From TrEMBL, chain A:
UniProt entry tagged with the keyword Transferase: no
Similarity-based family: Belongs to the binding-protein-dependent transport system permease family. FecCD subfamily.
Keywords assigned: Cell membrane, Membrane, Transmembrane, Transmembrane helix, Transport
Location in or out of the cell: Cell membrane
Transmembrane segments: 24-43, 81-101, 113-134, 146-167, 179-200, 220-242, 273-296, 308-328, 335-356
UniProt-listed CDD domains: TM_ABC_iron-siderophores_like
GO biological process: siderophore-iron import into cell
Gene Ontology terms for molecular function: transmembrane transporter activity
Membrane topology: Multi-pass membrane protein
Source organism phylogeny: Bacteria, Pseudomonadati, Pseudomonadota, Alphaproteobacteria, Hyphomicrobiales
Primary localisation category: membrane
SUPFAM superfamilies: ABC transporter involved in vitamin B12 uptake, BtuC (SSF81345)
PANTHER family recorded: ABC TRANSPORTER PERMEASE PROTEIN MJ0876-RELATED, FERRIC ENTEROBACTIN TRANSPORT SYSTEM PERMEASE PROTEIN
Protein name: Iron complex transport system permease protein
From TrEMBL, chain B:
Protein function: Part of the ABC transporter complex HmuTUV involved in hemin import. Responsible for energy coupling to the transport system.
Alphabetical keyword list: ATP-binding, Nucleotide-binding, Translocase, Transport
SUPFAM superfamilies linked: P-loop containing nucleoside triphosphate hydrolases
Gene Ontology molecular function: ATP binding; ATP hydrolysis activity
Protein name according to UniProt: Iron complex transport system ATP-binding protein
Family matches, as Gene3D superfamilies: P-loop containing nucleotide triphosphate hydrolases
Organism encoding this protein: Mycoplana dimorpha
Amino acid sequence: MANPSLAGPAGMIARPAGDRSGRALLTLAVLAAGLVVVALFSLTSGASDASALGVLRHWFAGAPADALSARDRLIIYDIRLPRVVMGMLVGAALAVSGAVMQGLFRNPLADPGLVGVSAGAGLGAVSVIVLGTTSLAPLTALLGPAALPLAAFSGGLAATLILYRVATRQGRTSVATMLLAGIALAALAMALTGLLVFIADDRQLRDLTFWQLGSLAGATWQKLAAAAVVILPALAAMPFLARGLNALALGEATAAHLGVPVQRLKYAAIVNVSAAVGATVAISGGIGFVGIVVPHVLRLVVGPDNRYLLPGSALLGAALLLLADAFARTVVAPAELPIGIVTAAIGGPFFLWILLRRRGIIDL
Amino acid sequence: MIELRDVSVAIGARRILSGVNLQARPGEVAAIVGPNGSGKSTLLKALSGDLAYGGRIAINGGDVAAMKPAEAAGLRAVLPQAATLAFPFTVHEVVKLGLASGRSGVPAGEAGRLPERALARVDLAGYAGRFYQELSGGEQQRVQLARVLCQVWAPVLDGRPRYLLLDEPVSSLDIRHQLMVMDVARHFAAGGGGVVAILHDLNLAAMYADRIHVMHNGRLAAAGTPGEVLDDGLIETVFGCRLKVGAVPAGGTPFVLPQSIASR
């Protein structure tokens, strides 16, 4: 569906019919620009009236030092900026992880939430919240603020490794077994999480509830640094899986015939997804549906080529989460809604819409 | 040269192939025929590196079991019986996946246009912008063939022959496109490459194959030129029906053979 007028920056060279790469590149450029705008908007909006213009003047125009008051400076640099950066990291990680999972499972509805990765990470995090002052006290004392992200990451990775062991026989992974094993693992992790919730005290319950709903509140540079160490390498690695995932769309055997080392590809996808998802669950709790909505919307525009879909998902996921967060922060100001409620409210109906649209077209 | 020596495949306790010896030479079309469940597809899967097997399979002297996927992808391309796609790729995008191994054998500047040429070769010029899922089964099969052709466009690369492994390449095609696809295979062989194709149509096999290999109960029942292999006795033993080779139907019932096509 090469529309010459949409052929993008390199559009001077005529592209063959059915080649959507020009349109995809243009979309990436638009998304990148859009993300910058959304980030600036996010940085300058909120309960405080630190003005957008003041911030921009302060940054770009070399305005006198008094362009920002000390209070505004604190709000911008220590509260909003870490939150914006965290929102971008979390949104990008969730969206790209979703796209990679969908490529791996050859199913547009696959999501890290589906194969138990998120549930495993959640179990790890809840263990620290509930048992952190009792049985796990030595551990939390040792690790300090890093205990929560590390526990979530370990939980996600453990779930993924068990999953991989169960679903892989003689070096081959069965996608159907993997999906079903993921459902079983998620149920088990939820049961254990439920048990912990059952024994939690009232204060812990409140922490748990807010964490489970998902939130970007309480972002600090330290928390961010701990998560970024895991998320950034995973985000950087995943676009390198794009070509292999494209071939995998034709099936595992055909991908291998095309020269793709399929087992290595699957293993790399699994490790990177569980790392990225574990770390995001740790810092932001249960933010759902980003991994399904973002790649699906993008596929409608740029097509299913992962070379454009993966970077595009990172950009759109980051922008979308910032918008959802801005909405969550302002809609009931000065209080703030957990962002997980916003993404679920958008994502749930969207998910159903995909189901209805695809019913009968593609076997789910 | 493709060489199978004493190849056997067992899935669980069931033995699907036993003691198969087979050679497919470059410059030739080799047809594999046989009844359903005789092991034809299993043979092709072992040859493609999809299955663990006993014995030895070598392509141009290299052991298939020890070959890296990328190395094998430069030596042979495999046409599956049917391919479903999970995502809405355009025809162009599917065919272009054939270029993934980067060993099509055309100069780098021409590779971008190769999908169009491959589509024209399978009579699908003008289909590049369509969505794969919207095509008929026969059209999808030809799109896959175009993809496979892109992978090994040059039948000989760096002085070494390459191979097309085709699993029932004409199973969902009308007679005109059956002939066209078999012409593509013969053209590839004439260019110095080798073709191994599973066929059900014995007339088509007799017309196009240089050698026919007959599978029966997981073993090779016969191999040779069409004239050597196709006789009444073998067909009765292998297929279990009493047919006469070369007999014209009694009573003037019309019949149409691919061999009767006017020379082009």
